[in-house]
Amino acid sequence: MIRLSTSDPGFEREFTALVNARREADADVARDVRTIVASVRDEGDAALQAFTKKFDHHDLNQTGWRIEKAEWLAAHQSLSAELRDALELAAERIATYHLKQKPEDSDTVDSAGVRLGARWNAIQNAGIYIPGGRAAYPSSVLMNAIPAKVAGVERLVMVTPTPNGEVNPLVLAAAHIAGVDEIWRIGGAQAIAALAYGTGRIGAVDVITGPGNAWVAEAKRQLYGVVGIDMVAGPSEIVVVADGRNDPEWIAADLLSQAEHDPTSQSILFTDDAGFAKAVADAVDLQIGTLATAQVARASWDANGAIIVTANLMEAMPLVDRLAPEHLELACDDPQPLFDRVRHAGSVFLGRLTPEAIGDYVAGPNHVLPTGRRARFASGLSVLDFMKRTSFLQLDQGALAAIGPAAIALAEAEGLPAHAKSVASRLAGDQTETLL
Amino acid sequence: MIRLSTSDPGFEREFTALVNARREADADVARDVRTIVASVRDEGDAALQAFTKKFDHHDLNQTGWRIEKAEWLAAHQSLSAELRDALELAAERIATYHLKQKPEDSDTVDSAGVRLGARWNAIQNAGIYIPGGRAAYPSSVLMNAIPAKVAGVERLVMVTPTPNGEVNPLVLAAAHIAGVDEIWRIGGAQAIAALAYGTGRIGAVDVITGPGNAWVAEAKRQLYGVVGIDMVAGPSEIVVVADGRNDPEWIAADLLSQAEHDPTSQSILFTDDAGFAKAVADAVDLQIGTLATAQVARASWDANGAIIVTANLMEAMPLVDRLAPEHLELACDDPQPLFDRVRHAGSVFLGRLTPEAIGDYVAGPNHVLPTGRRARFASGLSVLDFMKRTSFLQLDQGALAAIGPAAIALAEAEGLPAHAKSVASRLAGDQTETLL
């Protein structure tokens, strides 16, 4: 953990280093991924079976390729009532929030007589990747599957690795609640390639979303264009802006809730109160030992944590914008003036009573958010990621007369005579009289 | 050009081959691009200067790195009145159409007392790539720059190669009209890398859009994640669905307007009238010889053209959906029933009097559209490509009591104790009484 203060003479240099620090793996997985992708494209199911044996240590012909719906249902029924209710509350709130994202079609005629519009359609087939093992989160299933179903995706395919054949029942239960249509017991770059190209058993999809390790992320990047993808995701991060009137324990828990995800996660506190800064640092040190996730949280906090003291909270805001954090908490009585200054952030949590974890699970907005300063140009996952727009035009003779000549002039200037002729011959109108 | 009929016994096999035919370069440019990108990242302007000397045959220190605004203005003033008016009409109509794409913010409180919302902001810095040489189109400048400016992009940077130092004045004039802020005389993968990473002279941007050759497309793909990009673009295509009551010359011109772009372009006609099919084929053969673009158009038509006879026009529609074409013309008296069956298409041109070329220039919708069957999952360029969304949440004690327990249950089930604690400590409410 580093401690900075905007009043330090070297602050700008040190803060710039913090902004530019790369926490993403430098490992060149691109070559391995290219090999895996090409194998699955060319050999289909045989390649899937071989890679699953190699990486997940089970034989798909024995464990089964698909996880059948009866098994999802059983997983759902075996949940405690508390957990089932929690998942269902989350699903309902996520669906409600995402329903409002559905875009409206347009269809108008302008003053020149040109009919102009746009029509949105759902993606027909979508795939979601859900990691196996430690990071097998039912909340990831809800956050990826529900926007797809709200959009109107007809066939929603989930892939998830089952290392040594072991399935996470919470993930199956969440898939049942979210309305997933198929689940395949595959993971890694090979699962992404199977979704993109299709295999004998698995039908290809049009869009792939969902979190994954470096191989999964690289496979999505390489197959971008063959299919649509959500975003290149990196390690998670939180920035907390807090005054001295917060409970240090609460803020420590918020910082640790990010740190416990992964050693590469990052937690940063901005505060205008040096005493509070120290109190939070002490609270983190105390709390960290009590966590079952202590080892991961400590690695993250030691390597990537930061506490930055500013003259006042507003001074923090341009610095926050430079970090363009995935998650931003504004923990003070009146967060609105600070929020009004935020330009680059994935999701913002306002006030003292809105811990980021609420957004991870049950609030409604998506928890799949841009990381690694990508909030400068990217948004959280939404219904729009599972839809696409078709524009359309319709001209009559009057509209063509109004705007056709300009099209001809531009086509000729660009050296494209057939473009010009396609407009000019209609403007000449020979056929109009005889046929229309 | 191939001729098919849905009544042929081998139709399904031949049509499937047409759908799956890849017209994109197989050349493995990825390695070259990786080298160029790494050089520009590490050596900045020196690498740019060297690559420009090598590929564009001029020395940036002599020709100048930037093209100054005085030169754009001069280019604009030297246009003929007809061309200037045409560009300005196009710019105005494109701006009007794209203004309607601006998304609305939301900010509501739900029945549980949770404040939920989403706020859209413009990308701060955007870059657009405009090819040099033969494919230097002022319409591309308008179609990329205007959505960015409508979105509210503050710094809009254009890069365009000037082979042998030669600039296309139409492109400069269009940049002037569209409100571009900077123009740099660079191109290829090196220009994309410069925009993504920034160099000593050129400030980095957050999003890069615009057409380019295979090197440019691959550089964008490789840098996706470092910056946002629009789409992986491939060769252009048109599908025309026409009954026998169209003028064959008009439809021939429409097919050729796509073919004249590039030898890899594709033009496909569906018609329910075998006599009309033959008449169009004959008209194409006659017209093609009259075009200044004959060589390119003939190469495209010979290699990739197709005429497909169907029993009726409606029978064509599911086949069109399988092609998911960039451009689709529905040339008949009442195109609406056909249009209602279209699910996958970039842009649709309705009726006999709406040639695709109208959409390339002056109608308003964007002409940057998904190619190569990507309309299954992608949309044309829009204002949304230059904006991003920040979601936000605010809870009070009542809202936290309503949804907090479910978050705790899920966090515990996922094995994330600090997540649970960040909610639970606030629910316990110790601080609430003392501080709030």
UniProtKB/TrEMBL annotation, chains A, B:
Organism lineage string: Bacteria, Pseudomonadati, Pseudomonadota, Alphaproteobacteria, Sphingomonadales
Top class in the EC scheme: oxidoreductase
Pathway it works in: Amino-acid biosynthesis; L-histidine biosynthesis; L-histidine from 5-phospho-alpha-D-ribose 1-diphosphate: step 9/9
Keyword Cell wall biogenesis/degradation annotated: no
Binding site for substrate: S236, Q258, H261, H327, D360, E414, H419
Gene3D superfamilies according to UniProt: 1.20.5.1300, Nitrogenase molybdenum iron protein domain
Named cofactor requirement(s): Zn(2+)
Chain sites annotated for binding NAD(+): Y129, Q190, N213
Co-factor note (free text): Binds 1 zinc ion per subunit.
Single GO MF annotation: histidinol dehydrogenase activity
Family per similarity comment: Belongs to the histidinol dehydrogenase family.
Provenance organism: Sphingomonas oligophenolica
EC number: 1.1.1.23
Name the UniProt record assigns to this protein: Histidinol dehydrogenase
PANTHER family: HISTIDINE BIOSYNTHESIS TRIFUNCTIONAL PROTEIN, HISTIDINOL DEHYDROGENASE HDH
Residue sites binding Zn(2+) per the record: Q258, H261, D360, H419
Short name of one Pfam family: Histidinol_dh
Catalyzed reactions per annotation: L-histidinol + 2 NAD(+) + H2O = L-histidine + 2 NADH + 3 H(+)
Keywords: Amino-acid biosynthesis, Histidine biosynthesis, Metal-binding, NAD, Oxidoreductase, Zinc
Key word Metal-binding present: yes
